Amino acid sequence: MPITSKYSDNQVEEILSEVAAVLEKHGATPELSLMIAGNIATNVLNQDVAASQRHAIAEKFSQALLSSIDA
């Protein structure tokens, strides 16, 4: 069953485009881009998610990431 998001594709694409432009502006390598993405995810989890939920959400996030890549 597909996952339905409460966010529009346009909203997601616009933010993604802006983030990509910043990474490109700074000449970020793939490794640096992934490091930054990981740090953002960690900061969101630590600042905006209850401690009791962090592990479960991090696991769901990692599963979603794995399922979204071409293997």
In words, what does this structure look like?
The protein has one domain. Helices cover 76% and strands 0% of the residues. It has helices spanning 9-25, 30-48, 51-68. The model has no long low-confidence stretch (mean pLDDT 94).
How are the SSEs placed, and which strands pair?
Elements: H1 9-25, H2 30-48, H3 51-68
Give the key terms.
71 residues; mainly alpha; 76% helix; UPF0352 protein LNL84_10455; UPF0352; YejL_sf
Instruction: Please estimate the helix content.
Output: over 70%
Which structural class is indicated by helix and strand composition?
mainly alpha
Largest sheet: none
Taking pLDDT < 50 over at least 5 consecutive residues as the criterion, the unreliable ranges are: none
Overall average residue pLDDT:
94
Structural domain tally: 1
The rough form would be described as globular
Helix-strand pattern:
HHH
What is the C-alpha radius of gyration, as a whole number of Å?
14 Å
Number of distinct beta strands: 0
Percent of residues in β-strands: under 5%
Number of H/I helices: 3
CA-CA gap between termini:
20 Å
